[in-house]
Structures are given as structure tokens and as C-alpha cells.
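C-alpha cells in:
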């Protein structure tokens, strides 16, 4: 009996695509609007999309123009119990609806305002639900905070890998050493310092990393995107993500005509900075009006895209991969288990071997050939790079469009109808277990955050001197600030 149970568990663990993953993908595909059910669509075929937290730590200690947080966000106290409890609830619901594996962002205000221990517990809660967490930060914290987060009390790593997305741009105010930057170039030392902390962490403790660099783009800094791309490519970031600003959040910080910056304008500047065309049409997450991305190998100063949309053999290999491997979980899977998964998948579809090998050869050729790749690898100049643009929508359209969707109505107004199409195709969902639903990120930020933050302000008020309680110190003095106050320890947590 015990042997039979063990064999059944082994069969499930080594099955190329977990049945819960298959069910979640099929549901996601069925829910997509027809206009995005294209051969290059990844949602519902390869992934369910990204996920994020909400209402778990709205407060931030920088001021940005624009800022997607509502006016009440900074009036909510940081409370670790509240954070960890709600992260666990949200992730558990995502596991139930969207399967055993997905990428999820620990996002709110500024994540490093959490104590290192609470931050770690939130990440562990996400991992327990099968999520690959990424901490979203402005990057203005010290190495000691990072090590307190990653290492336990005995100095032993509690994570084998950590993922962070650090937001750097000249629209941000209050960063130590760059309170009011006048250009993007002024922030390069801070970008480099942030990434170097993770390089040192790997050297000292063997902890792997995935680093994304985020930048908000407005008319005032759009012409600096090219140089930012060029500069950050020389730093150890794995992803470069750019977000044209939208009219969301605190309207006191809307100081430009954000509509002047288009997804095409940003992508053209990224390509100029990269020094290469960056083909993106071979794959698509959600609606092309919202997202654009490409993945490739950087070899020296060159870039070889994994897929060339103009090469029929690449497209044929893509289709085979999506048909037979889409939904296979590769990350955080023990190598022996992953090996058996791949062998089982190839055994079921032996005709895939030659096309996939052919794809690898073409990528190698685009990279300059094997000799060049090996030469640059010896110099440490070979790495995978992802380029992304996320093009958010204005709250003035999201709010009425969502209200109509909640009533099951399709808008007559062309702009609201377009907004509904994009919301229905959203690749980024947030979990509401109390009401049993998932909502697109633009809806969360435009419609729900302002309501949630009013309630959170009541539940987690900022401490006042009249409270008569000692503030809780949640980070060492060498951290982001000398003392981080969250009010009386664990008061008001839910």
C-alpha cells in the first residue's frame, strides 16, 4: 500500500504538466477575449499570468510624480502580522484558482519598510503556496537589511534564490543621496550599488538572484530611456521593465500629459539603447496594447532573440513547445524530477526534438556562433536579458469600464470598449479571497485601492504621541532609516 502511494506521488511529480496546472491554463484560455486568442498568445497556453498582493503594506517613504497609490496610502501603519496573514490568504486563493505555480509580486508601498523578519515570512508564505515571489522596492535599503532578510539567526540562508524588482527613475523624490535627481544618469551609482549587494550575497552565501530594473516613463524623461537602457545593460540586472505613466492614484502628483508617451515610442528608445532591433511579435502576454516583451541572450554587446518572428522555423518550434510543453514547471523543481519530466515529455512527442535543437542552433548563430559565445562566456559577458514595456490605463476609463463589466455589459463608447478588452486580457491579477474573485491590476489600483486604503487607515492608524506606547523598531539603525515606526507592536493586526 505504501509502495503504491509512493509510486502514484512520483508519477504525479514527474508528470510533464500537473493536472491542476492544466485545468488552470484551460480556464484562463476560455476566459480570454477572442481578439487575443492568437497563435503567439502565452496566457492560457504557457502561463496563467503574473500575480500581486494588495492592501498588505500601502505605506511608502518616497514621493514620486506620478504615484499610483491613493492619497490615503501613507496614512496606514506598517504592521507585519497584517502583512503576513493577508499575503498567506491571498496566495492560498491564487493557488486554488490558478494552479500550483506562478510568479507573484510582493507589492504595496515600500517592501523594505517591513522588518526583515516580516518580509522573510511573507516570502515564505508565498513560496508555501507555490508562488515564485518577487519583492518590489525602490531599492533604498542597505546590505545589512538584505542579509537580515535572506539569512536566519544563525547566518544560514533561508532562501536559495531571491527576486527583486528595483524602481529607479528621476521622478522619485527622497532617495538618500539623490533627494531630487535632475537626470537619470545621476541614479546610476544607486542602480549599481543595489545590484552589487546581490552579487556580494551570492559570493558570500551562494544565494542566487533575479533582478529587474523598473522605470516609469513620462514626457520629462522619455528621451533618457535610450541611455538608461545602454547603462543598465552593463549592470547585473536580468530584466529591464519600462512603464509609461498613466493617470492613476494620487492626482496631486499628475504634472504632465502622460498620453504623449506611447508604447511604440518607449520601445524604439529601448532598441536604440540596446543597439539592436528587439523583435517581440513571436510571443504575447495578454493584449498587445498593454504588454510588449522579448527574451534573448546578450553576448558581449550583441543580442540574440530566442524567437525571430520572421523565421518560419522559429515559429514552428514555438508552436510545438506551447502545444506539448506549455505549462511545464521548470523553476524550483529538483533536477532529478525535472529530468524525468523532460524525458517523459520528449518520449510522448519525439518529433519535437529536431525542431527544438534547430531553434537552439539558430539562436547560437544569431549570437555570433559557438566560438564567440564561448569567448564572451569566459569574460563573463553572456547572460539572458528580458525587455518589457507595461502600458497601464487611466483610472478615468478603467472605473466606468469595470462597472459595466461587473454588470455583464459591453460598452458602446469605443474607448471604454477598448478598456474592457484590455481588462479582460490582463496578465496581472490580484486576489480577493473574501469575495471569491480575481481582479486586473489596473482595476485594483484605479478602483479598489482607494476604498481599501480608507478602511486600512481605520484598522492600522499611524501611531501618535498620545498613544503612550513605545514605537516598534523593526530594522537595524543602518537600514533605510534610523528607526522605522509601526506603532505599538502587533496592535491592530488582522
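Residues out:
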Amino acid at each position: 500500500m505504501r509502495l503504491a502511494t509512493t509510486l502514484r506521488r512520483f508519477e504525479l511529480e514527474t508528470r510533464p504538466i500537473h493536472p491542476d496546472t492544466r485545468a488552470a491554463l484551460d480556464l484562463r484560455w476560455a476566459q480570454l477575449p477572442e481578439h487575443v486568442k492568437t497563435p503567439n498568445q502565452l496566457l492560457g497556453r504557457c502561463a496563467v499570468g503574473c500575480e500581486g498582493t494588495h492592501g498588505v503594506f500601502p505605506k511608502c517613504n518616497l514621493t514620486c510624480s506620478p504615484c499610483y497609490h491613493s492619497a490615503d496610502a501613507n496614512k496606514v501603519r506598517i504592521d507585519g502580522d497584517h502583512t503576513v496573514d493577508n499575503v498567506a490568504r491571498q496566495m492560498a486563493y491564487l493557488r486554488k484558482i490558478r494552479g500550483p505555480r506562478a510568479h507573484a509580486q510582493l507589492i504595496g508601498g515600500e517592501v523594505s519598510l517591513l522588518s526583515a523578519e516580516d518580509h522573510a515570512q511573507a516570502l515564505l508564505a508565498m513560496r508555501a503556496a507555490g508562488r515564485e515571489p518577487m519583492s518590489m522596492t525602490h531599492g533604498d535599503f542597505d546590505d545589512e537589511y538584505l542579509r537580515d532578510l535572506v539569512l536566519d539567526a544563525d547566518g544560514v540562508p533561508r532562501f536559495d534564490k531571491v527576486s527583486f524588482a528595483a524602481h529607479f527613475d528621476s521622478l522619485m523624490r527622497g532617495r538618500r543621496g539623490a533627494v531630487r535627481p535632475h537626470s537619470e544618469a545621476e541614479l546610476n551609482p544607486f542602480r549599481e550599488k543595489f545590484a552589487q549587494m546581490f552579487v556580494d550575497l551570492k559570493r558570500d552565501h551562494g544565494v542566487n538572484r533575479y533582478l529587474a530594473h523598473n522605470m516609469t516613463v513620462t514626457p520629462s524623461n522619455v528621451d533618457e530611456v535610450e541611455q538608461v537602457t545602454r547603462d543598465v545593460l552593463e549592470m547585473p540586472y536580468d530584466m529591464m521593465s519600462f512603464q509609461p505613466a498613466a493617470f492613476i492614484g494620487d492626482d496631486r502628483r499628475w504634472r504632465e500629459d502622460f498620453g504623449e508617451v506611447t508604447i511604440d515610442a518607449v520601445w524604439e528608445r529601448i532598441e536604440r539603447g540596446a543597439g539592436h532591433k528587439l523583435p517581440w511579435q513571436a510571443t504575447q502576454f495578454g493584449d498587445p496594447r498593454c504588454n510588449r516583451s522579448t527574451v534573448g541572450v546578450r553576448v558581449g554587446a550583441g543580442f540574440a532573440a530566442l524567437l525571430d518572428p520572421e523565421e518560419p522555423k522559429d515559429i514552428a518550434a514555438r508552436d510545438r513547445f506551447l502545444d506539448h510543453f506549455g505549462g511545464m514547471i521548470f523553476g524550483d523543481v529538483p533536477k532529478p524530477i525535472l529530468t524525468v519530466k523532460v524525458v517523459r515529455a520528449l518520449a510522448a512527442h519525439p518529433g519535437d526534438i529536431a525542431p527544438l535543437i534547430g531553434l537552439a542552433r539558430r539562436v547560437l548563430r544569431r549570437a555570433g556562433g559557438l566560438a564567440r559565445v564561448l569567448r564572451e562566456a569566459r569574460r563573463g559577458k553572456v547572460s539572458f536579458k528580458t525587455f518589457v514595456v507595461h502600458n497601464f490605463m487611466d483610472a478615468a476609463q478603467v472605473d466606468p469600464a469595470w462597472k459595466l463589466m461587473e454588470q455583464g455589459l459591453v460598452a458602446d463608447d469605443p474607448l471604454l470598449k477598448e478598456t474592457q478588452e484590455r481588462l479582460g486580457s490582463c496578465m496581472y491579477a490580484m486576489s480577493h479571497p473574501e469575495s471569491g474573485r480575481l481582479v486586473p491590476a489596473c482595476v485594483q489600483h484605479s478602483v479598489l485601492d482607494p476604498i481599501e486604503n480608507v478602511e486600512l487607515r481605520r484598522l492600522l492608524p499611524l501611531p501618535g504621541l498620545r498613544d503612550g506606547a513605545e514605537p516598534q523598531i523593526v530594522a537595524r539603525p543602518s537600514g533605510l532609516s534610523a528607526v522605522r515606526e509601526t506603532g505599538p507592536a502587533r496592535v491592530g493586526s488582522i
